[in-house]
Specification:
2 copies of one chain form a homodimer.
Chain A lengths: L3 E9 L3 E3 L24 H6 L9 H10 L2 E6 L1 H4 L24 E5 L7 E2 L5 E5 L3 H12 L3 E6 L1 H9 L5 E7 L7 E2 L12 E7 L4 E6 L1
C-alpha cells in the first residue's frame, strides 16, 4: 500500500532538523550540513551528484531506500528556497540547479501562487497555496499508487504530523549538537500521536530509527 | 585530572531523561525504564544485581566505564526518592535497598535538612541544602581526586549544565519515544555552552555519545 512518509530526515542529538538563520549561503541553516555527515559519503548521495564511489554500508542502505517507490514529493517553502513573502519573479528555481534530485512531481507549500516549473529529468515543481491537505491530495493523485515523501523541512513535517497525515518516518540521528534551529519534536508528542520505533539500525555515522503508527 | 561528569545517562529520541508522573511504582516516571533497555542486559548491570551473565559488547563497555574512577556522586532529590516537601521521618532510604550501587559518598540536593544516612558497602547519603555549588564543593573534597559523577535526574543535570560546572557527559540515546516527561535539552543550548561530540559509538541497543567542552 502506498504510504505518506518522511525518509532520511536528519535530526541532531538535541532534536533540530536544520540550523538557524537559513539564507543563500546556508540552505540548511547555519551548521545544518553537519546533520548530513552520514549521507554525504554514501554511494547513493554520490550517484545523485553524478559521481562514482561512496560507501555501501547501512547508511547507504537507508539513503537508497529513501528514494525507492516515491511517486511524488511535498516540500515546505523554506526547503524550496530562502525567499520569504511573494515571489518577485520566476528566477528562483530551487537549490538544486537545472536537474533536481526528485524526478517526480514536487508540491511546494506556499502562501503565494506561482506557475508550475518544469525542470529536467522528470521534476516539476507545483506551488500549492490552499494548505497541506490539498497538497497531499494532489501529491497522492500524482504519485500513481507510489509513496508520497514529505521531504521537509521541520516545519512542514510538523504540520503533517500534527494533522495525523504521516504513516512512517525514517529519522537519522546524527551525533551533532546544533543548540538552535528548527526543532522537529518541540511541542509535539509523537508517542501520543501513535508513533513507536518499528526498526532501529546503528549505521556507520547515524542511528537510523523507523517510526510507524 | 578529576572530572565532573555525567555518565550512562539515557535519553529518548525526543530528548527526555525520564518519563512523567514519578511515584513509588515508577521511579523513572511512566515508561522511564524503557530508556534503559541498553543497560539492563549488560554484565555490568547484572553484577550490580549480584547476578552472573550479561552482554559484553559496546553497551557493557560504557556501562562499566560509567562506574570507573568515581569518588563521589551527586543526585537530585527526585532521583533519591518520590517524596516532595519536608522529610516526614527517616524511613525513606532511597530506591536501592540496604546496599545501594554507589559505594561512595553521595550528595543529595534538597531544600530540607536531614542527617547523613550510612548504608552498606561504602554508600553514605549526605543531604545538601545550600545549593549545587556547595554540593559540588563537598563532593569534590569527598572524591579524593577521583571524578564526581552527577547521577541525575534531568533537572539536576540541567542546573549543573547551566552553571557551567560539567566537564563531560556520556549520553546513551535510546530508540524510544516518550512524548512527555523530564526533558534534558529544552531551553538549554549545549553547543552554546561549549559542548561538542568527542566520541560516538554505536552500541547494540543505544547510540553512545560522549560530549566534552
Amino acid at each position: 500500500m502506498s504510504k505518506v512518509r518522511v525518509a532520511a530526515f536528519s535530526v541532531s542529538l538535541d532534536g533540530f532538523g536544520a540550523g538557524p538563520h537559513q539564507d543563500l549561503q546556508n540552505p540548511l541553516g547555519v551548521r545544518g550540513t553537519e546533520l548530513h555527515g552520514w549521507f554525504f559519503p554514501t554511494e547513493a548521495f554520490r550517484k545523485m551528484q553524478k559521481q562514482t564511489g561512496g560507501t555501501r554500508g547501512m547508511d547507504n542502505d537507508f539513503a537508497e531506500q529513501s528514494f525507492e517507490n516515491v511517486g511524488a514529493w511535498i516540500l515546505g517553502r523554506n526547503m524550496f528556497g530562502p525567499i520569504r513573502g511573494p515571489w518577485k519573479d520566476d528566477l528562483w528555481k530551487g537549490w538544486w540547479g537545472a536537474n533536481p534530485p526528485y524526478h517526480t512531481p514536487v508540491f511546494v507549500l506556499t502562501h503565494y501562487a506561482r506557475d508550475p516549473l518544469v525542470m529536467e529529468s522528470g521534476t516539476t515543481f507545483y506551488f500549492v497555496t490552499d494548505g497541506i491537505e490539498s497538497a497531499l491530495e494532489k501529491a497522492k493523485e500524482a504519485a500513481l499508487g507510489k509513496d508520497v515523501r514529505i521531504g521537509g523541512g521541520a516545519s512542514a513535517i510538523r504540520q503533517f504530523l500534527a494533522a495525523g497525515l504521516i504513516d512512517e518516518m525514517h529519522l537519522a540521528f546524527a551525533p551533532v549538537l546544533l543548540g538552535e534551529g528548527e526543532h522537529l519534536f518541540s511541542g509535539l508528542n509523537l508517542h501520543g500521536l501513535g508513533f513507536a520505533p518499528y526498526k532501529t539500525v546503528m549505521g556507520e555515522n547515524a542511528m537510523h530509527v523507523v517510526l510507524r503508527k
